[in-house]
Amino acid sequence: MRIAVTIILSAVFGLVGTAVGHHSDAGYDQERIIGFEGTVTRFLWRNPHITVFVETPNEDGELVEWGVETGSTPIMTRSGWSRDLFAPGDVISVRAHPDRQHRAHAMMISIEKSDGSVWIQDESDTQATASATSLDGVWKGIGATTGPFSRALDAMPLTPAGEAARASYNFQAESPIRNCIPPPPPGTTVASTVYLNEFEVLDDRVVIRSEFFDAERIVYLDGRGHPENGERTNLGHSIGHWEGDTLVVDTTLFAEHRSTNGTGVPSGPNKHIVERFSLSEDGTRMIVDVVLEDPDYLVGTFSATKELLYAPHLQLFRYDCDPELSRQAGFE
Fold first, then answer.
1. What's the CATH number of domain 4-123, 3.40.50.2000, 3.90.1720.10, 2.40.50.140, 2.40.160.20?
2. Rg (CA), the chain
């Protein structure tokens, strides 16, 4: 069996890119699609990505084992997958984007089993099923608001240090995500398109949990300020207050992070974020207004809005990132 390669038109590529929008295109050639049939040898149900290992003959007739990567377990569980979906010996047909370094790795588009069932990674927006009366509960990002948010951050003018960092960035060697280190805020807000967030509103604090790397933020509402010479952490130190029904969160004391202000642009110790969380009039959406300053790497003030859908029918899953598997990834 030979591997078939297809060059796809940009219009089609736009649709494919949307489906795998949380992957970095640095590791895979998303302008090409390969297709092949093979036999499953292993099925790893681990994060940051599930991998189906498939054995198929190359052009010389020698058997080669391909690693076909998909999304993480939370995403794929909501796509209908389970840890027993594939077993060694299953014959499957794969469509995927090939590895840019010509390794036997690929990023899945679809897998067809011998029974004719086709399995994909479903990241489509969910529909509103209920209205919230507070910020408390489970929320999923609305995809249409993610693109403008991310593009606006990528378009921010950079300081000389920011320009140099972006130009020299090597995600294979430097990506914090490859060591299971989550992005600092507002990274989990951006990731909420494919990962759920849960808000737990208490009298003295709000706990914000994200499926993405199991990140958990505590927003203190007890009137305290930021500690002088406080410990710097990846998620920073957050204090908040209510302005009517709007939660206003001030976060500082960030640790350095190599790539969060757009790909390859770090965040520095002087980073400061103010977020405003409020409900839409009908209670089906959360409006998140973000104002960010990071003077070590960004010129000026970044501001953008992201919306999340109230999703009480969805369940958060543990991420439990595996550092060894993460460092093998072809994507960030």
1. 2.40.50.140
2. 21
